[in-house]
Amino acid sequence: MHEYLSKIASPKDLQDLSNKQLKQVAVEVRDVLCNLVATRAAHFASNLGVVELTIALHTTFDFSRDRLIWDTGHQIYPHKLLTGRYDEFSTIRTRHGLMGYPNPAESDYDLFVTGHAGSSVSTMLGLRSGDDIQQEGDRRAVAVIGDGAFPSGIVYEALNNAAGMNANMLVILNDNKMSICPRVGGLADYFDRLRMNPFYTGLKSEVVKVLNNIPLLGDPTERFLAQVKESVKAGLHGGMLFEELGFSYIGPIDGHNIPLLRKYLAMVKKQKGPVLLHVVTEKGHGYQPAAEDPVFFHTPPVFTEDDEGAVVTQTSNSKAYTHYARDAILEEMRSNEKVTVITAAMCQGTKLEPVREEFPDRFFDTGICESHAVAFAGGQAKTGLRPIINIYSTFLQRSFDQVFQEVSLQNLPVLFMMDRAGLTAPDGPTHHGNYDIGYMRMFPNMTVMAPGDADELTAMTKFALTLDNPSAIRYPKTNAENIERKRTPIEHGKSEVISTGNDGTVISYGTQLAEAVKAVESLKEEGLDVGLINARFAKPIDTETILGALESSNFVVTVEEGALMTGFGSAVLEAAADAGLTNIAIRRLGIPDTYIEHGERAQLHADLQIDASGIATVCREMAKKTGVLEAAN
Question: Catalytic site residue 370?
Answer without folding.
Answer: yes
